Amino acid sequence: MESERAKVAELEANHRALSMELANAKSQELNKRRELVNASDEIDKLKMKHSREMMDLEMDLKQRSREIRELNEELRLARGDLERERDTVSSLKANVSQQSTAHISLTAQISALQAERSALQAQLDAGTSTISQRNLDLESALRQINELEEEVREGESIRRKLHNLVQELKGNIRVFCRVRPILPSDASPPTPDEPADAGADIAFPDKRDRKEIVMSSASSNAMGQERKEVYNFGFDRVFEPHSSQSDVFEEISHLAQSCIDGYNVCIFAYGQTGSGKSFTMEGGSTEATCGMIPRAVNQVFKVAQDLRSKGWEYKMEGQFLEIYNETINDLLGKGEFDKKKHEIKHDKSGTRVTDVNVVSLQSPSEVRSILKVANSRRTVAATLMNERSSRSHSVFTLRISGLNMHTGEQCEGSLNLVDLAGSERLNSSGAASDKERLKETQNINRSLSALGDVIAALGEKSEKNEKHIPYRNSKLTYLLQNSLSGNSKTLMILNLSPLAAHLNESLTSLRFATKVNNTTIGTAKKQLRSSN
Predict the structure, then answer these.
(1) Of 54, 109, 244, 277, most Cβ neighbours within 10 A?
(2) Which residues, at least 6 apart from 397, have a Cβ–Cβ distance to it below 8 Å?
(3) Rounded alpha-carbon distances, angstroms, from residue 15 to 1, 4, 26, 94
(4) Which top-rank group of organisms is this from (predicted)?
(5) Which residue spans within 362-497 are E strands per DSSP?
(6) pTM higher than 0.85, yes or no?
(7) How far apart are the first and last CA of the chain?
(8) Cα 422 vs. chain centroid, distance in angstroms?
(9) 437-491 pLDDT, tens digit each
(10) Secondary structure string (H, E, C) spanning 369-384
(11) How far apart are CA 392 and CA 410, in angstroms?
(12) 3 state SS of 243
């Protein structure tokens, strides 16, 4: 019991203790609630205060944002100004660098010029000190010049001998072949029987020395089989259709030198009607188309002028003849027609024709004037082969006599430039239907045939065989006797038509030219005069 009472008492004591603790806990809870209420009030106050502060901060932040934007804009503008200033500074630095480089260069130039001035001054001083010595040297040099001029005159004499030796080694009758180009006037409309005019089959295989020409023709036999024939010819020089007048003259210009040196020179153009003989010899109105006659005359006058410095003085005379129907006409005679009878005379001094006008020539322009007069009086007529065909042979002769004022040496030479009338057949030329044209064609062909006979006789002549040369068979061959007999340096320019329609005439001309090229006529001799 006592133990139960003790337990009860202990329980009551625990109960009272717990009640007191509970009362204390409630009291503490109330205190905490009052504190929480107070804290809540404080929090509300703080929230209100914080809200007001936040509003103030937001307003301040917006104000700061506006200020920042303004500052950024100002900063952007400032950066742009800064970049421009930097560019300006860079440009100024570059200019300063260039000016510095230029200053350095100018300084160096000034130094160089000053050094050069000093050097020139030194040279001037040295030159001034040697003037008297130079005067002495000049006197000595003048003596040497006189000695050298004498050597030059001797050298010129040797050169003239060597030049003419070279020409002699090339052969006395040289032959050039020239094929003219196809012209617009060559074109003719085709017919049912005949096609339009076409070019002949012509080849030039020798591209290095240009000395060969090959012509080909095709024909059909009775069985209808085609046969092609090839003809090869070789000459001293062959000129293709594109060759210019200057190309041709370049090869013959040395002959003009020979006549100045005292030799007789003969250049004649041969070929069928319409092959370009007159163009080759006389040429056109421009400098590029100028023919062999005016070019040769210009060359002669030029060489004569050059030789004046070596003591040579030259006198030149010219005459212009034509042979028409075996009659000699003076193309420089007075009056519209030449009615005089002219005879050909050969003597030791050369060939001359009686009662012809010989004109003294002082310049190439005077030669061009007499050529113009002669051409206006030359006999021409139209044929089927050529609208304006020369019906006569023309012979222009330039006589040259020279005297060396230092040595007394004298020489006489002549330059004969011959434009032969065109060879043609009676049927192809249309001459058979015209009595006057028939007579002209017969005389032309007869004189050209006589020229062939002379060439053939010269080819057969030798030291043991004194064959008669038929110079007198034609006025043409008789006039050219000294040019063909070995007393002259002779060149024949064979002119060919490029048309297939003229092939037969071209082959005939080529065969004749080959015969001429194979003919030896002897060595030309220099024409000298005594100084008395």
Answers:
(1) 277
(2) 318, 319, 320, 321, 414, 415, 416, 417
(3) 20, 16, 16, 105
(4) Eukaryota
(5) 380-381, 389-390, 393-404, 410-419, 489-496
(6) no
(7) 207
(8) 33
(9) 788 888 888 888 898 888 888 777 655 566 788 999 999 999 888 777 766 788 8
(10) HHHHHHHHHCCEECCC
(11) 36
(12) coil
